[in-house]
């Protein structure tokens, strides 16, 4: 993404604009080790949405990214053809993040289902053991009562 480019995102009806900014150190000296540029992303949104962006949107973005490795992010940001624009690369990254999140949710849901099935199976086993113990006690009582 270049400094002159912006990326527009909408999350739960709130519009957010991402843009890259760079701070180039203003030095008049010559050095073999020039000072590094400082880059950061600037987020623009309506001031009435500040709390929402700080609490929900940024958490949403961070949660999505944690399901992908930096290599995956870089791969999705790399242009696939020579004349591909930045918007297309960012859209591909966002789609990959969404897919990654959906896959993680499906996996978590499947694990929860398996856990609940296992617990239900354990409960059934426990109840069948209790039934067997009850039958054994009844048989012993009947045997003791008949004697």
TrEMBL record:
Residues 97-147 are annotated as: Disordered. Residues 64-108 form the AAA+ ATPase At3g28540-like C-terminal domain. InterPro entries: At3g28540-like_C (IPR058017). It comes from the Eukaryota. Residues 99-121, 129-138 have a biased composition (Basic and acidic residues). This is AAA+ ATPase At3g28540-like C-terminal domain-containing protein.
């Amino acid at each position: 993404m270049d400094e002159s480019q912006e990326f527009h995102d909408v999350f739960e009806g709130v519009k957010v604009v991402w843009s890259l900014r760079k701070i180039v150190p203003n030095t008049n000296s010559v050095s073999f080790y020039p000072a590094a540029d400082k880059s950061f992303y600037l987020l623009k949104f309506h001031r009435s949405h500040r709390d929402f962006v700080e609490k929900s949107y940024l958490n949403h973005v961070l949660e999505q990214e944690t399901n992908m490795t930096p290599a995956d992010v870089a791969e999705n940001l790399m242009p696939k053809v020579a004349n591909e624009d930045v918007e297309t690369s960012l859209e591909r990254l966002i789609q990959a993040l969404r897919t990654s999140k959906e896959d993680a949710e499906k996996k978590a849901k499947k694990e929860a289902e398996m856990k609940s099935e296992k617990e239900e199976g354990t409960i059934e086993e426990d109840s069948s053991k209790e039934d067997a113990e009850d039958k054994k006690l009844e048989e012993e009582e009947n045997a003791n009562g008949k004697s």
